Amino acid sequence: MLRHNATLELSRVEYNGVMRAQDLHDHAAFNAANPVWLGFDCISVIYADVDVSAINVNNLDGVFNATANSSCP
């Protein structure tokens, strides 16, 4: 879940349950398509029930490689 407070210029992302590589990719793709979000501070809240067992290093590399240029000015 993504929440944003425009007054504080602060975003909060909450992670719970099973996380898939596609979830990470979709979040990165959203940021790449909407670079205005990259300028805000962000608090990530990761709940105790998060299951990242389906994500591996290759998945992370894939997300990074697909969006590597999105945060470059």
Describe the structure in your own words:
By secondary structure, the protein is α+β, with helices and mostly antiparallel strands. It has one domain (2-71). Helix content is 33%, strand content 22%. The chain contains 2 helices and 3 strands; from the N terminus they run E-E-H-E-H. It has helices at residues 21-33, 57-67; strands spanning 2-5, 10-15, 41-46. The protein has a 3-stranded mixed beta sheet, with no helix packed on it.
Q: Sheet bearing the most strands, described?
A: 3 strands, mixed
Number of strands: 3
Helical residues, percent: 25-40%
| Major β-sheet strand ordering | 1-2-3
The total of helices stands at 2
Domains (count): 1
Structural class estimated from helices and strands: alpha+beta
Q: How large a portion of the residues is in β-strands, by DSSP E? A: 15-25%
Termini, distance in Å?
A: 26 Å
Gyration radius, rounded = 13 Å
N-to-C series of helices and strands: EEHEH
Poorly predicted runs? none
